[in-house]
Sequence to fold (235 residues):
Amino acid sequence: MVTAKSDDERIAYAISGGWREEAWASERTRRNKRKQIRKAAETTTRRILKDGDVINSGGALGIDQYVLNQVLEFGDVESQVNIFLPVERWSYLEYMFGRSDMGGDSVITQNQAYEISEQLQEVMKLAPHAIHDKTKYRAVHPKSYAARNTALIESSDALYAFHVDDTEGVKDAIRKAKEIGIPISVNRYEVAKPGWARKFLRSTYNTGRESLKRNKIGKDLARLLRSATTNPNNN
Fold:
């Protein structure tokens, strides 16, 4: 049985999940597994929302997007969701657009960056208090993501984890949930092709700073978006 920490007796569920599709064996695998994982995450989210409880999520691609879509469609954004970010919200969007403009080394697509931006801006409009981005970090990196995970888990009564190929971020969330003793439900998926981790690490190190120099267009898009949102009367 899960016991709520808050006075209103609603249960706050952390939902954590992620994967690297470049590790998957084929497009067919990506399509089928993505569909399977998405269905599980959306079913879990709708059940939580139907019970009137709260979802704590991380504002990233994949699972976080699936979850937030369900909240925006079926939940009460003002009272049923908290989004924890690794840095200040506009810096986070700038980072996302930057990572989508690195040529062949792009981590996400421009469309994915726009999707994240549109989701988070909708939450900002409906419930700005639901975005938790007060942090000592100014850049997105493993330490700021780890701090985000800590804040997310410490604000939750239980954790639902969708753990694909033993990814580090979800593993970190599970470890922290165990440390504070909250209930954990883990859905595990093993779909990566052999040797993906070594190949990914080598590719990441080779990318280095040279690739980051090519993200100017993405950063400019984020700045323009911020300006249009905060100054809607500007031409």
Notes: The domain at 12-229 is CATH 3.40.50 (Rossmann fold). The radius of gyration is 18 Å.
